[in-house]
C-alpha cells in the first residue's frame, strides 16, 4: 500500500497481533475471548484500510499516485470480465487477507533462519559464500535484482529446510531420508518428488505469495550474512506454537560484524 510512515504502520501492530492470535482459536464470540478480540481488531483494521483506500482514490484522480505503484492501485483500477470494479469493502478484505497471509509466515521464516544459521556454522559458511559472490558483483548502494535472487539457490534450500510444525509432513523417511537432520542439500537437483514437499500448499489454492516470500526471505538473508555472524544467547531456547512456531524468549543473539 506504499505506506512508509513508521507511526502509521505501528498503529496496525497491536490489532494485528490480536487478529493473528484469534484467527486460529476456539470460535467463541464472548467478551474477553481471543476470538472476540480478533473480531474487534479486524473491524478496526478494516476501518483504517477504508480510510487509506479513500485517500488513494483521490490521489489517483489527482495524479498524486500512479496506477502501477502497488497492489492497492491495481485493485482499484482493475475490473473483472464483466467490467465491474471491486467495491471498497472487498478491497479492504482482500488486503486484510494478504496482510494475514503474508506477515507472520515470512517473518517466522526469517526468525528461524537466524536461529539455525546461529546454531550451524557449516551451513552459515555456505550461505555466506553464496551471498558474498553476489555482493562482490554489486557497486556501492546498488540494489539486488531478480537475477541475483535466482542465483541464491543454496540460501533458498536453507529456507526450505526450516522448521515445519505439522509433524506428519516432511518427515516421511521414504522421501526425506534422515528427516531430523538439517540438510539443505536434499533440495538440490530435482529435489523431493512432486507433492511431497508442500510448505506453500498445492493445487489451485496454492499460496499466491510464494515468490514474494522467496524474495523477502532471500533479501533478508543476503543483507544479514553479508554484514554479520552471530551467536545465540540462549542455547536451548524453547519453541512455542502461537499459532506459528515462535522462540519463547524472542531469540536474543549477539552480532559480530565481519569487518570489526
Ligand atoms: C514463508 C512464507 C509463506 C508460507 C510458508 C505460506 C504458506 C501458505 C499455505 C500453506 C497456504 C495454503 C495453500 C493451500 O490451501 O493449498 C497459503 C495461502 C495463502 N497465502 Fe501464503 N505463505 C507464505 C507467504 C505468503 C505471503 C508473503 C503472502 C502475501 C503477500 C501470502 C498470501 C497468501 C494468501 C492470500 C493465501 C490464500 C490463497 C487462497 O486461498 O486462494 N502468503 N500460504
Automatic annotation (TrEMBL):
Cofactor(s) for this UniProt protein: heme
Name of protein: Cytochrome P450
Subcellular location: Membrane
Organism of derivation: Lupinus angustifolius
Keywords: Heme, Iron, Membrane, Metal-binding, Monooxygenase, Oxidoreductase, Transmembrane, Transmembrane helix
Residues that coordinate or bind heme: 207
Homology family: Belongs to the cytochrome P450 family.
A single MF term (Gene Ontology): oxidoreductase activity, acting on paired donors, with incorporation or reduction of molecular oxygen
Signal peptide: none
Membrane-protein topology: Single-pass membrane protein
GO biological process: sterol metabolic process
Coiled coil: none
Record-linked InterPro entries: Cyt_P450, Cyt_P450_CS, Cyt_P450_E_grp-I, Cyt_P450_sf
Pfam families with a match to the protein in the record: p450
Organism taxonomic ancestry: Eukaryota, Viridiplantae, Streptophyta, Embryophyta, Tracheophyta
GO CC list: membrane
Amino acid at each position: 500500500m506504499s505506506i512508509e510512515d513508521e507511526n502509521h504502520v505501528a498503529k496496525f501492530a497491536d490489532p494485528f497481533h490480536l487478529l493473528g492470535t484469534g484467527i486460529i482459536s476456539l470460535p467463541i464470540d464472548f467478551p474477553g475471548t481471543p476470538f472476540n478480540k480478533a473480531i474487534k481488531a479486524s473491524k478496526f483494521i478494516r476501518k483504517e484500510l477504508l480510510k487509506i483506500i479513500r485517500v488513494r482514490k483521490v490521489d489517483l484522480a489527482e495524479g498524486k499516485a500512479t496506477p502501477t505503484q502497488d497492489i492497492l492501485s491495481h485493485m482499484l483500477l482493475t475490473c473483472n470480465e464483466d467490467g465491474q470494479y471491486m467495491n471498497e469493502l472487498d478491497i479492504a478484505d482482500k488486503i486484510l487477507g494478504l496482510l494475514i497471509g503474508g506477515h507472520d509466515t515470512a517473518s517466522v521464516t526469517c526468525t528461524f533462519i537466524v536461529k539455525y544459521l546461529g546454531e550451524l556454522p557449516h551451513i552459515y559458511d555456505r550461505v555466506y559464500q553464496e551471498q558474498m559472490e553476489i555482493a562482490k558483483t554489486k557497486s556501492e548502494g546498488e540494489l539486488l535484482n531478480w537475477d541475483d535472487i535466482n542465483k541464491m539457490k543454496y540460501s533458498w534450500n536453507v529456507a526450505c529446510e526450516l522448521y515445519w510444525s505439522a509433524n506428519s509432513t516432511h518427515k516421511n523417511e521414504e522421501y526425506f531420508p534422515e528427516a531430523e537432520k538439517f540438510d539443505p542439500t536434499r533440495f538440490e537437483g530435482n529435489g523431493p518428488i512432486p507433492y511431497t514437499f508442500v510448505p506453500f500448499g498445492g493445487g489451485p489454492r496454492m499460496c499466491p505469495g510464494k515468490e514474494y516470500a522467496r524474495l523477502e526471505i532471500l533479501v533478508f538473508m543476503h543483507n544479514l550474512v553479508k554484514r554479520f555472524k552471530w551467536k545465540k544467547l540462549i542455547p536451548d531456547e524453547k519453541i512455542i506454537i502461537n499459532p506459528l512456531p515462535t522462540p519463547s524468549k524472542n531469540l536474543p543473539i549477539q552480532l559480530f560484524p565481519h569487518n570489526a
